[in-house]
Specification:
256 residues; 25% strand; binds adenosine-5'-triphosphate; binds magnesium ion
Length: 256
Amino acid sequence: MNDQAVTEEASPNPKPQAQSPESILECKGLSRDFKSGETTLHVLRSVDFQLFEGEIASIVGSSGAGKSTLMHLLGLLDTPTAGEIFYRGRNITKLGDEAAAKVRNREFGFVFQSFHLLPDFTALENVMMPARIGSGSLQWMREADSRRNRAIELLERVGLGERLTHVPSRLSGGERQRVALARALVNEPAVVFCDEPTGNLDSKTADEIFVLIDQFNKELGKTFLIVTHDENIAQRAQRHLTMVDGVFVDTPKNAG
Ligand SMILES: Nc1ncnc2c1ncn2[C@@H]1O[C@H](COP(=O)(O)OP(=O)(O)OP(=O)(O)O)[C@@H](O)[C@H]1O
Ligand SMILES: [Mg+2]
């Protein structure tokens, strides 16, 4: 596996970290095919993309364009057919399962449209889950209290300080997504992937979720990649990209 920093453009004096310093996540020539019997579906077609550190970038595009597929690849939830993915200049395309799980758990957070909370666990337990999963038993014995406090702090920050012991069925949709957002942040990831985070919410609640995302971006410096069908949310991102048939097309705010 090529584990070296990659060069953005051929340069006579490549720096040790030749990738753009602001680029936190990047893909080059990323393709994903799905085979179905005799047919091959070319869902992503050699996508080049950079996510810049500290930004909120949004991706819109019609259903089936490949937005979730791209997000899953960048988040190491799926494996590309071709192309490469770099995180802070390190090639993470072909990490083994364990190494990929580590990157996912420590560096990335995920928020999905349908919340994906564990139904039998309280809000607080759901938020603590990635911290628990990412720790060995001994480490957890040492860190459980501080992780729990961090989870409580995050739940308070998203306005759910009074709902710590509620299970998801006793929370509204907006509240569930707030729990999911807190869970995505509990391990202090650098990048948070949000796949239609407001897709199941009314516009006022959607707006409240975006306000929280914006706060976590500005106050904690987290980088967000948001896939959405909500033009209002998309336009409020700092960079706005459009995907059509597995490739990005130019939009006025697409400076990447
Ligand atoms: N595991 C899979 N096997 C076969 N085809 C798949 C698989 N996952 C996705 N696809 C196909 O890839 C295409 C893109 O799917 P994707 O979920 O990325 O679209 P999307 O842009 O996120 O759409 P939406 O806005 O509806 O969520 C679709 O045609 C879908 O059927
Ligand atoms: Mg999708």
